[in-house]
Design a protein that fits this description.
The protein has one domain. The protein is mostly helical. The chain starts with 7 loop residues before the first helix and ends in an 11-residue tail after the last helix. 52% of the residues lie in helices and 0% in strands. The chain has two helices and no strands.
């Protein structure tokens, strides 16, 4: 399994008033990893080794 990139308790806090399934944080972490990978690719394509907000 991949490393978890989100804090489960913060996800629950953000889902105000909703129950959060046990597998939600894992699925969200996969999506976050994908966003990070895409941002890194864009930074490299632009000749940078620094990932910036604009890469999202």
């Amino acid at each position: 399994m991949a490393e978890i990139l989100v804090v489960r308790s913060k996800v629950k806090d953000a889902a105000k008033g909703m129950n959060v399934a046990g597998d939600f944080a894992d699925a969200l972490s996969v999506q976050v990893q994908s966003l990070v990978n895409d941002a890194c690719r864009r930074a490299k394509e632009n000749g940078r080794s620094t990932v910036k907000a604009r890469d999202l």
